[in-house]
Amino acid sequence: METNLLDWILFLPLASAVICGLLFRQSGSVAGVISIGSAIVNSILALSLLTHLQAGDTIAWSREICRFGETSLTVGYSVDQYSALMLFVVTFVGAWIHLFSWGYMRDDSARGRYFAGLSLFMFSILGIVLANGLVMTFIFWELVGFCSYMLIAHYFDKDFAAAASKKAFIVNRIGDLGFILGIAACLSLYGTTDFDTLKVAVAAKPAPALVGFLLLGGFIGKSAQFPLHVWLTDAMAGPTPVSALIHAATMVAAGVFLMARIFFLLHPDVLQLCLWSGAAMAALAGLCALAQTDIKKSLAYSTLAHLGIMGAALGLGHPELALLHMAMHACFKATLFLGAGSIIHGCHHEQDMLQMGGLARKMPVTFATFLVASLSNCAVPFLAGWYSKDAILEAAHEHGVLVFALLSIAALATCLYSGRMIRLVFMGEARSEASTHAHESPWTMLLPLIVLGLGYSVFAGNYIGIPKASVSVLPAPMHFHFGAASIVGLGSLIFGFFGALWFYGRSKSDALRDASPALYGALERRWMDNLYDGYVTRVQQPLVDALAFIDLALINGIGGKILGAGIPAGLGALSRRLFHTGSARVNAAWFAIGALLITALLLGIL
After folding, report:
1. CA–CA gap between residue 417 and residue 353 (Å, rounded)
2. 364: helix, coil or strand?
């Protein structure tokens, strides 16, 4: 019964994608109803499954698809405490993002294609959540990469969207190369890729560091960790609900989920790389958010900072805290991105925060939900973000001063850019025609904001509404106490959030840019993009040009036209005379000969 329910959960979005893509691509309204309906039903089925699971229960089912000697490759389902939590987050948050899309994409002529892609994306991420091993995970992992490419390029007629989608696809392939090599290493060492079997085998024979480093490549690419983080901010070229889906609940969280699930494979050296890379990126990305005027790009840097915090939690040896922060982050970050979508919709597609202002009076519901989600993002005590962020800060404090200092900078930067957004977008006077005539969004866009913002961004940390099977991965409910992490959190809130409200109220433009152009320019400049561009221009392109010259001049020129021209010509003439005569009898004869040869090979005669 449980495996049948998992079949429905996995394949219902696929059925929706096929129906929308093949039958209703030109009818956006029908495709939207089908896609939204399947997402809502899917979330109900997932919650039904999780509420019937007891804490610590697992569901396992597998089927062998091929065997090479002693090596067996299987596909199947494996639902444990980690996948139970991820299943809740993906289906619940994803359903509300689908509903929000109905209002946001109302005037889009390609809604049918959009909703088909959205359903296919849900199918792909659910395949990762339910997979029983690394092979099945990798299949859906690549499908998620394709879906993100397709959704980011929804506005493919715009150059920046096409470039962003290609960038996301290529950068993720770099990380996935390491991932597939790590899978091959597991097959070579243990003869299996199933999670349960691997856990037993690794307990007897620990995995070398190389395996963990290779598998880490997939996490670095998909979860936008340094140095493959450059694609995430450009992914803002897609529709805002896609940004919410990628940055909040699904794609970037997939890498964190995978690392938590294969935590037993990770060597201490791998965890150290996760720790320092994540902590440094959390601090730097949070500060870079202060130099963004596009509201979506500022939130994208915020996501990079939180992904760094999750990576640091993994490196500290606390995968349960990384999963906890992933769940809490999904609630308030989805609210922030959907709130940004509501703002963009209400301001007639204006995304520049410097062209906004005074929206609190014109969009009160959006303002209330955005403010609550921002405070949760800032880890205000007893809001959702505080439960996970404070716990990670405490773990960092126990580990060492430098890691704690980096994550403290990240906490302060979070409060700074959150206060900056609230001040520039919602307070003061309108600074453009778009913000002067702004209006509140329709109910299909406001209802997801209310549920995710006023509901889960506030109460998710208390486990309200989270199924008991998912709660088993989370630590016991926390109680407020004055420790190093709490002092940093409260200090960041007072001096960061409220300080930003005061500081950015001093100027009608960007106060930091006015006060320190050099600092603003340093934070705004995309150093890694410049480094990659320099490598491609100065190293890769000359090498490609040299190989192209060798191919054209030597291989095709001398080898193909001079030395080998007679042989292909002779073979072509012989083939034309024997096979391509145009006679049905000759074709039938060759078909019969081929069938007899294959039969003889299968029977062992030849």
Report:
1. 12
2. helix
Angle at CA of residue 303, ends 300 and 306, nearest 5°: 160
Query: Taking a C-beta distance cutoff of 8 angstroms, is the pair 560, 324 a contact?
Result: no
- Which tokens go with 324? 């906890």
Strand partners, 74: 64
At 218, the amino acid letter reads: G
Q: Give the integer Cα–Cα distance in Å for 308 and 285.
A: 9
Tell me which H or E stretch contains 323.
Answer: helix 319-346
Burial class (CB in 10 A: 0-12, 13-18, 19+), 360: middle
Q: How many CB atoms lie within 10 A of CB 435?
A: 25
Cα–Cα–Cα angle for 332, 334, 336, nearest 5°? 70
Contact of 70 with 79, CB cutoff 8 Å: no
> Are the beta carbons of 124 and 140 closer than 8 angstroms?
yes
By the 10 Å C-beta count (0-12 exposed, 13-18 middle, 19+ buried), 146 is classed as middle
The answer to whether 298 touches 419, Cβ cutoff 8 Å, is: no
Please state the separation of Cα 280 from the chain's center in Å. 20
H-run or E-run covering 140: helix 134-152
- List all residues 6 or more positions away from 337 whose beta carbon is below 8 Å from its beta carbon: 240, 241, 243, 244, 247, 248, 296, 299
pLDDT (tens digit per residue) in 478-516? 555 667 777 888 888 888 889 888 888 877 788 888 888
- Are residues 282 and 305 in contact, defined by beta-carbon separation less than 8 angstroms? yes
Q: Which residues pair with 66 in a beta bridge?
A: 73
**Quick check: 83 and 132 in contact, CB under 8 A?**
no
pLDDT tens for residues 159-184?
888 888 888 888 888 889 999 999 99
- The pTM (predicted TM-score) of the whole model is 0.85
